[in-house]
Design goal:
This protein is α/β, with parallel strands linked by helices. It has 14 helices and 19 strands.
């Protein structure tokens, strides 16, 4: 079967693509940035890639002979005040392009919308569903609640809260009821629903077997991890204070925290339907889903994470715009060392950040992360998805990976921390020399003052880092 898939670099689509390839489907993957094609599918002979932005699409980009398509485009953390109009426009453009093909079915992943009082994001999801309906193809909508899986935003937020706070003073919305669903079950619904005529032109709630409050989810998560936790809910925490609470305690951005708080006030209980019989599935319970997620984490085999989405930080350009380091109007700190063991040095570079730290004066790196968080930045809490593997587009603490090639022996990072300018950090081996370049392009007088303020720290922080990269202990 020939299938069009959108949101290829996103949390759901990236995993779904691997599932569809296992089933030997041919994929046409839509991406906005050809430099961000996931490595695990880039060389697959069943995959082809189209550079396509559905907010400003080029006509005739999509092949006519597709059998089905997935609409998996959504960002909960957008800052745009008119995001509802943008989402509707995106869906309309997709519909126009797909309607001109031979597509028989479009599958759309949405959110459960059975409560009388919906958040603005759930209202937008419902609006997108209405926009996607067409006489030219059948629309199948799967409406899910909280998705539980390694790397999902809800999973990582719950993990942060449980693992960091023995006693939690929490907002009252922790008593809101929901039906969490394992990511493995989501992928089963999406892949097994292909060309099932019984599912055409209808929407189906998909949900796990248990109705739990967010408080119960936190406590059950703690049980799985063998931790004893106490939770006190207070009615006085406003949505804004709740958002700040999530932002400072967890790895989420303030934008996403605000959107999640808005949605978490809404009860998410699914309505039964024929879908489980048609697809022949019995969704797993919450604790099983959490255990399976940690198996992936412990194996260092997390396929995708919400943190790697561009919307998790401040970077919103094409990666290609930042691959070449600027030469003019910049401050630079360049260090060079002889490489003793190239494989050792490459392994150290590719493992930098996250739980592994920055090899030199980690306390100062953490302090910089706390300062960044106080000023509304991403801080260090995003960490990294994989401890030893990097690819373009990955989040790495308060950096974004712009280029990563072990063959070319080059790793290039772009700063997403709050700065009065732009900053890059590059590691590159040429011949037997490692070059470590920190480049800062200041914005105005504050940028120049910032550079000179941090310059004294560079001498020992950057020297210690490059020494650790070349000196096996």
């Amino acid at each position: 079967m020939r299938i069009l898939i959108t949101g290829t670099t996103g949390y759901i689509a990236r995993r779904l693509a691997l599932q569809l390839l296992e089933d030997e489907h041919e994929l046409i993957c839509c991406v906005r940035d050809l430099n961000r094609i996931p490595d695990e599918i880039e060389e697959n002979p069943l995959c082809s890639f189209i550079k396509l932005d559905f907010l400003d699409p080029e006509p005739n980009k999509i092949p006519k002979d597709i059998d089905a398509a997935y609409y998996l485009i959504h960002s909960m953390s957008t800052t745009s005040e008119d995001f509802e109009d943008l989402e509707r426009q995106c869906a309309q453009n997709f519909k126009n392009l797909v309607s001109a093909t031979q597509c028989k079915q479009v599958i759309y992943l949405s959110g459960i919308v059975n409560d009388d009082s919906l958040s603005k994001h759930l209202k937008s999801r419902l609006q997108v569903e209405a926009t996607l309906k067409s006489d030219d193809y059948a629309l199948t909508t799967f409406r899910a609640g909280i998705i539980v899986g390694s790397g999902s935003a809800s999973f990582e937020i719950i993990r942060d809260l449980v693992e960091k706070l023995p006693i939690m003073v929490t907002p009252k919305w922790l008593n809101t009821k929901t039906q969490p669903l394992a990511i493995r079950d989501v992928l089963t619904y999406l892949s097994a629903g292909l060309l099932k005529e019984e599912l055409y032109n209808n929407s189906f709630d998909i949900f796990g077997p248990e109705v739990l409050t967010y408080k119960e989810m936190l406590l059950q998560f703690a049980e799985v991890r063998g931790l004893k936790r106490h939770i006190i809910t207070l009615p006085i925490l406003s949505p804004k204070l709740s958002s700040y609470w999530l932002y400072f305690v967890t790895s989420t951005s303030f934008k996403l925290a605000s959107a999640l708080v808005d949605s978490m006030k809404v009860e998410v209980i699914g309505k039964p339907s024929i879908v489980n019989d048609v697809i022949d599935i019995e969704p797993m319970d919450y604790k099983t889903a959490v255990n399976l997620a940690f198996q992936k984490i412990e194996q260092n085999a997390v396929i995708s994470s919400w943190k790697d989405a561009a919307s998790s930080g401040r970077f919103n350009d094409q990666l290609s715009k930042h691959i070449e380091l600027p030469k003019f109007g910049c401050f630079k700190d360049v260090k060079q060392r002889t490489v003793i063991d190239e494989e050792f040095t490459l392994n150290k570079i590719w493992a930098i950040g996250g739980r592994n730290g920055w090899y030199s004066f980690n306390g100062l790196w953490k302090l910089r992360g706390y300062v960044d968080k106080l000023f509304g930045g991403v801080g260090l809490r995003r960490g990294r998805t994989n401890d030893t593997y990097l690819e373009a587009g990955d989040a790495l603490d308060f950096w974004r990976v712009i280029y990563a090639s072990r063959e070319e022996k080059r790793l290039l990072l772009f700063a997403e921390m709050r700065l009065p300018g732009e900053a890059w950090l590059e590691f590159k081996i040429m011949k037997d020399q490692l070059y470590q370049r920190a480049v800062f392009r200041p914005k105005g007088i504050w940028g120049r003052l910032y550079w000179y303020a941090v310059l004294p720290f560079h001498a020992f922080v950057f020297n210690g880092m490059i020494n650790a990269l070349v000196e096996p202990k």
